[in-house]
Design goal:
The complex is a heterodimer. Chain A is α/β, with parallel strands linked by helices. Chain A is 22% helix and 29% strand. Chain B contains 18 helices and six strands. The chains are: A alpha/beta, B mainly alpha.
């Protein structure tokens, strides 16, 4: 199936079942990408997994994202249906003031560590996660380092100006 | 003690016997785990009751580092993910960028990549399989076969100057053809390695002691493996025939004829056998690539904005010098967009999720590391098994610390 057809198929199905929960649906390179309202994200994922025709039974990847305005966080899911070779990307965004989102561990056991990693690096709080604590960084760390407000280099240095190169 | 003497001793019952588990700290630097892995094991005698893995001992913040590096400078980071098969990581990263800038490689470059990727897959599986042998007490196979890994590394060294952390090739292809003597080395390897591999297979594959140790050890069902997002040989050993090279062919893999081996029970023996068979298939792919490769033509894509001009021109031509400077300093504009690209790494689907906002560095880069994802099933796989089985289960899963902790 062509990627555009897959986009159309998933879009129609989601529109039929979750009216108003889809914020956008587009084809980015070879991936159909859906931005879903935070309130419906768990229902949508559960529907995508259990729907007979779509059957996205495999969670390829789950990761976090911060929008450039530094006001919103996002979680990005890559879903896969191996037998039909359907692959889609599902995104959801929410304000940084209240970074809470339902967990996907009840749908895929593999989401456990991926969500812990996302919590560790972005501070996304997955509601209902069985063991939400830091995984790669030390437990005593008090920041979420992949957020853009924590620059890579020590900002007190003035011998390294990045006016010309780098962000 | 005779029967008469024991008469008055009250034997302990379920209620009176105090149940106590023994806590064993396996790792972080235990010699049997081949890497920095810590598992806090709750032991009942020699039976594992519960395991709690701790990861992150060699976390190096690759995703954060990548946000400040120009695209070409991210390649050395990818080397250090699964360092047993660095070239696959390198090419996976190049292909991600090439997808973003819509570069099309000539067949020749793609075939050259296939040859290198399959060689590194052999090196990767060879390490894993010979180490399973070592962990079951068979040092011989390891000693016999490890020199062939050195031969593969010699080939890498000829091409890029490095053996382990290769940084091989460039975004867009290869700067030159491989040297003639390297082609000879590759041909020689394909000719001679089957003999060594067969010898290794004869040592272990139907070995009674080896089979007794590995069959039904650390098994996982296909459903559970999918639930835990397993990929690669570990998933195939459980009986799911998913291979990225076939499902979403990249770098001309659709041109090659090869078989995806699958197991049935997902135990240590099946994982071992799947990797064995994959080495044979890799040899088959290299043979086909050598036979069908275009003998001349460019070895890189025609993308002057992103690909370094030839040195001869840099010294004699103003435009070329400007481009050279711009590319080396990372001042070429990469288009904004987001892509996900995956390759079949040594351990499974190695994915790169790249978001670019048009600057010189990625806005966000996420590595989908197969090890990190499937290692979380380890406690469940070793629950109720012996400590010595847990060791070989880990080595047969081929958990690589660099990929686990990124």
């Amino acid at each position: 199936m062509e990627k555009a057809e897959l986009l159309e198929l998933v879009n129609t199905k989601l529109k039929g079942n979750f009216h108003g929960s889809i914020e956008s649906a587009e084809l980015l390179y070879d991936f159909p990408v859906f931005v879903i309202n935070k309130e419906h994200i768990h229902d949508v994922l559960s529907f995508l997994k259990s729907d007979e025709e779509l059957n996205f039974h495999f969670l390829t990847d789950l990761t976090g994202f911060q929008t450039p305005d530094e006001k919103h966080l996002g979680v990005i899911y890559h879903l896969h249906n191996m037998s039909k070779n359907f692959r889609i990307r599902v995104k959801t965004f929410f304000p940084m003031a209240n970074p809470e989102i339902p967990t996907a561990t009840d749908l895929w056991k593999g989401a456990n560590w991926m969500e812990r990693e996302t919590y560790d690096f972005f501070g996304v709080k997955f509601k209902g996660h069985p063991n939400l604590k830091r995984i790669l960084n030390v437990d005593e760390m008090n920041i979420h380092p992949l957020r853009k407000e924590y620059p890579l280099e020590d900002q007190s240095r003035d011998d390294k100006s990045d006016k010309m190169f780098g962000r | 003690m005779s029967k008469k003497e024991t008469k008055n001793i009250i034997p302990p019952t379920e209620d009176t016997m105090e149940k106590e588990y023994h806590i064993l700290n396996l790792g972080p630097t235990h010699p049997a785990t081949h890497g920095i892995f810590q598992n806090v094991l709750k032991m009942d005698g020699e039976i594992i009751h519960e395991a709690t893995p701790t990861v992150g001992y060699i976390h190096r913040a690759f995703e954060k580092l990548a946000e400040r590096r120009p695209y070409a400078q991210i390649t050395p980071i990818t080397d250090r993910l699964n360092y047993c098969s660095s070239p696959i990581n390198n090419f996976g990263w190049y292909m991600t960028v090439e997808k973003l800038i819509k570069a099309e490689l000539p067949k020749r470059a793609e075939y050259m990549r296939v040859i290198i990727m399959e060689l590194s897959r052999i090196a990767d599986h060879l390490i894993c399989n010979s180490v399973i042998g070592v962990d079951t007490g068979a040092m011989t196979g390891f000693l016999y076969i490890f020199q062939w890994r050195e031969k593969i590394y010699d080939i890498f060294e000829d091409i890029c100057g490095a053996r382990l952390t290769t940084n091989i090739g460039r975004i867009g292809g290869f700067d030159t053809d491989f040297p003639a003597k390297t082609w000879d080395k590759i041909r020689n390897f394909v000719k001679e390695y089957p003999k060594a591999l067969q010898e290794f297979a004869n040592l272990l594959e139907r070995n009674r002691i080896f089979m007794d140790r590995t069959v039904n050890c650390g098994s996982i069902t296909a459903e559970m493996a999918l639930e835990y997002s397993f990929t690669g040989p570990n998933l195939r050993a459980a009986g799911v025939d998913y291979d990225v090279r076939v499902a979403n062919p990249y770098s001309s893999y659709q041109d090659f004829d090869f078989i995806i081996p699958v197991g049935t029970s997902g135990d240590t023996y099946d994982r071992f056998m799947v990797r064995q068979e994959e080495m044979w298939q890799s040899l088959k792919i290299i043979e086909q690539a050598l036979k069908n490769m275009p003998t001349d033509g460019p070895t890189h894509a025609n993308i002057p904005d992103f690909y370094l001009p030839p040195k001869q021109e840099v010294y004699n031509n103003m435009e070329a010098l400007i481009y050279h400077f711009k590319i080396v300093m990372g001042e070429t504009d990469i288009p904004a967009g987001e892509v996900y690209h995956c390759v079949e790494g040594g351990n499974g689907e190695l994915g790169f999720y790249l978001v670019s906002d048009g600057g010189r560095t990625p806005y966000r880069l996420h590595f989908r590391r197969p090890c990190f994802i499937y290692y979380q099933a380890y406690p469940e796989m070793i629950k109720g098994s012996m400590l010595s089985d847990a060791i070989i289960t880990m080595s047969s899963m081929n958990v690589i610390a660099g990929e686990l902790d990124a």
